Amino acid sequence: MSKALLTGSAAFLVALGLALNFAPVEAAAALGIEGASALPVQLLAGALVGVGLLNWYSREAVFGGIYGRPVGLANIVLFVVGSFALGRAALAGSSPALWVVFACYAAFAIGFAWIVFVGPRTSQTRPPQTGN
Predict the structure, then answer these.
(1) Measured between alpha carbons, how far is residue 13 from residues 55, 76, 79, 122 in Å?
(2) What angle do CA 100, 12, 97 make, to 5 degrees?
(3) Helices 38-58 and 2-22, packing angle to 10 deg
(4) d(C-alpha 95, C-alpha 60), whole Å
(5) Which pTM does this prediction carry?
(6) What are the TM regions of this chain, as residue ranges (predicted)?
(7) At residue 13, what are phi and psi to the nearest 5 degrees?
(8) pLDDT per residue over 52-77, tens digit each?
(9) What span, in angstroms and rounded, lies between the C-alpha atoms of 93 and 52?
(10) Which residue has the higher pLDDT, 101 or 121?
(11) Which of 22, 96, 102, 111 is 20 to 30 A from residue 30's alpha carbon, by CA?
């Protein structure tokens, strides 16, 4: 599940980042952010592409326990903070595209929180006991 989550989030983040980078004014208008300057939108695009590439190249790595925790926590912060901001903007009555982006962010936030804090339980075996 973690490989699918990392691959899906990578594709989503890179696609969103490229759209914001190459058409910042148009993408901001489609999301209901009228009059936005291109500079902050393109800076956000760079961050999204960067995290997307991090997820893409981390998809084959071990993602359980302590080894994948930094990547997982970075994604949790990105998607939870983004969900709150997008949810607040969507409730203010912005465009339907904003609701779609909010839903994607919220789904990825839940998915990464599940993987990092609950984690896949593959085995319920106990460690070997040393005898008395």
Answers:
(1) 9, 13, 10, 29
(2) 20
(3) 160
(4) 36
(5) 0.81
(6) 37-58, 70-91, 97-117
(7) -65, -40
(8) 999 999 988 877 667 788 898 999 99
(9) 28
(10) 101
(11) 111
What crossing angle do the helices spanning 96-113 and 69-91 adopt, rounded to 10°?
150
- Residue 42 burial (CB count, 10 A): 14
In this structure, are residues 60 and 71 in contact, taking their beta carbons and an 8 Å threshold? no
C-alpha to C-alpha distance for 34 and 53, rounded to whole angstroms: 29
Secondary-structure percent of the chain, ordered helix, strand, coil, rounded to 5: 70, 0, 30
CB-based contact 27:19 (threshold 8 Å): yes
pLDDT tens column, 6-38: 999 999 999 999 999 999 888 888 777 777 678
Number of domains in the chain: 1
126 domain-assigned: no
Name residue, tokens 């291109």: 38
Local structure of 43: helix, strand or coil: helix
Residue 22 one-letter amino acid: F
Both ends of the chain: CA-CA distance in Å? 41
* pLDDT over 60 at 94, yes or no: yes
The pair of structure tokens assigned to 2 is: 């973690």
